[in-house]
Amino acid sequence: MLWIIAIILLALWAVGLAFKVAGALIHLLLVLALIVVLFKFFTGRKAV
Question: Could you say which DSSP state residue 20 is in?
């Protein structure tokens, strides 16, 4: 589930970056995606 959220956030960030939309929101999405990926990596829990 976290991987899906991370992928969605990264995709939204890439779209926003490509079209130069909502400058601060783009960086917020990137930070959120990185937090989700790092959390998943460090917790090491298996998906059910």
Answer: T
Give the whole-angstrom CA distance, residue 41 versus residue 8: 17
Tens digit of pLDDT for each residue in 1-48? Answer: 777 877 787 787 777 767 766 666 767 777 887 888 888 888 876 655
Run of H or E residues at 41 = helix 23-43
Contact 7, 38 (CB under 8 A): no
Nearest-5° Cα angle at 40, 16 to 23: 15
